Amino acid sequence: MIGMYILIIFELTHRTVAAMFAAFVGLGVLSYLHERPSFETVVSWIDYETVGLLFGMMIMVGILTTTGVFEWAAVKAYKLSKGNLWHLTLILSIMTAVVSAFLDNVTTILLVGPVTLKLCKVLDVDPKIMILSEVIFSNVGGTATVIGDPPNIILANHEDIAPHISFLTFSLHVAPAIVLSTIALLAYLYFRYASTIHRDPSLHIKHEIDLWSRSLARLREDPDNPEEAQVFLYLENYIFSLEQQLRKKEMEGLATIEELEERYTIKDKGLLLKSVLVLLLVVIMFFMHSLLKIELTLAWIAVIGSILLILASGITNVEEVLEKVEFGTLMFFAALFVLMRILEELGLIEWIGDQLSAVIASVPEGNTRLFVAILLLMWVSGIASAFIDNIPYTTTLAPVVVQLANDPHLGLPLRPLIWALSLGTCLGGNGTVIGASANVVAVGLAEQQGFHISFMDFFKLGMPVVFITLSVSCVYMSIFHVLIHW
């Protein structure tokens, strides 16, 4: 796992290759220390629900993209913000947080992310801050409800925890911490990044020149190889033409809102109507699934929705549909799921739980023990969830929390421990690009549009957010669940 992080941090290879390599090495270690798992067993470790959900949503969003609605919505959003890019970032981020409280984070980012990326492309704005802000608010907002984030769903469905919490009870105790964390987060982002968001008329041409220049640097002009020499010459000429466009663009300046409205209109209103109806049906089914326990899983709902939209749109070329799917992201998730299960089989997550229990038991009973238990659960879970997937972590820690609460010698109430575990695992996912599924999806969407967001780009913004939100949540939990015993 450390090797995977080294490969990703220093960008020695693509994150998908790094995750596959780490999973392969992990299987070797597991086979050496324990019994070698069969191929069928390894394949069963992949969470096909997540992969299927992503696959279906990518197809639907991809088809919707062809209508031009994202560019149109981007211009309207910019007009609504009256040209203030910080206000625009604020509107999109808060909207993402609210939606994410009622839809899973991955779906939220797949719906909001393309709009943001098109917006940045239309307005000549670097999308890094906007897209990262949205995914962070998605993770924060999803923490507020039982159905907003996978760890919360796991906790709510645990047989020993379910009788003690409800949708309303959970939100009443956790949502205030999220509201306070959001206020602190907005203040941090404003003072740290508001002044860095600006329009640059030549941004995208500069970006393209950089991409092709790096490709040219990897080539070598070889007179003995005519094909390579021809490619080298073509790239040189193409970069020269881009540089000419750059000079022209810098002289022209930025387009006005009126010019943008004329340039970006809906291309296919019929397909847009069909796409919106199918997506609306899928979103309603997602919401009803959480409340009414519909037998269809989220993955099946997304896949069936994508099939319906393909049939309704009249697309006959399968390759055209599959081009909408970011297969690199899907493969990364598959490898990551295998790696996380290997860590679980090796006992790493269970060991973390045992150490937590031992430390908490060593503290004198009373408010001090409860304070230490909440503090440890939040911070250990937060840091761990930044580097390992929070789903297996929550699955392993849930019975540990129940065991701590049921131990008569410890005298710890169950509910505050549940709130602490939820806040730690969900908010900690903002720390790194692989801390939460939505993070990986957001970075994948950006790469699809030609914008590279590195591990360190995410880490520099995400890790301070983890410390800020966890600190605020710790203060809230200490006052309302240690001193006041709400």
Automatic annotation (TrEMBL):
<keyword id="KW-0472">Membrane</keyword>
<protein>
    <recommendedName>
        <fullName>Citrate transporter-like domain-containing protein</fullName>
    </recommendedName>
</protein>
<dbReference type="GO" id="GO:0016020">
    <property type="term" value="C:membrane"/>
</dbReference>
<feature type="domain" description="Citrate transporter-like">
    <location>
        <begin position="5"/>
        <end position="424"/>
    </location>
</feature>
<feature type="transmembrane region" description="Helical">
    <location>
        <begin position="271"/>
        <end position="292"/>
    </location>
</feature>
<feature type="transmembrane region" description="Helical">
    <location>
        <begin position="170"/>
        <end position="191"/>
    </location>
</feature>
<feature type="transmembrane region" description="Helical">
    <location>
        <begin position="53"/>
        <end position="73"/>
    </location>
</feature>
<feature type="transmembrane region" description="Helical">
    <location>
        <begin position="325"/>
        <end position="343"/>
    </location>
</feature>
<dbReference type="Pfam" id="PF03600">
    <property type="entry name" value="CitMHS"/>
</dbReference>
<keyword id="KW-1133">Transmembrane helix</keyword>
<dbReference type="InterPro" id="IPR051475">
    <property type="entry name" value="Diverse_Ion_Transporter"/>
</dbReference>
<feature type="transmembrane region" description="Helical">
    <location>
        <begin position="370"/>
        <end position="388"/>
    </location>
</feature>
<dbReference type="GO" id="GO:0055085">
    <property type="term" value="P:transmembrane transport"/>
</dbReference>
<feature type="transmembrane region" description="Helical">
    <location>
        <begin position="12"/>
        <end position="33"/>
    </location>
</feature>
<dbReference type="InterPro" id="IPR004680">
    <property type="entry name" value="Cit_transptr-like_dom"/>
</dbReference>
<feature type="transmembrane region" description="Helical">
    <location>
        <begin position="461"/>
        <end position="484"/>
    </location>
</feature>
<feature type="transmembrane region" description="Helical">
    <location>
        <begin position="85"/>
        <end position="103"/>
    </location>
</feature>
<keyword id="KW-0813">Transport</keyword>
<keyword id="KW-0812">Transmembrane</keyword>
<feature type="transmembrane region" description="Helical">
    <location>
        <begin position="298"/>
        <end position="318"/>
    </location>
</feature>
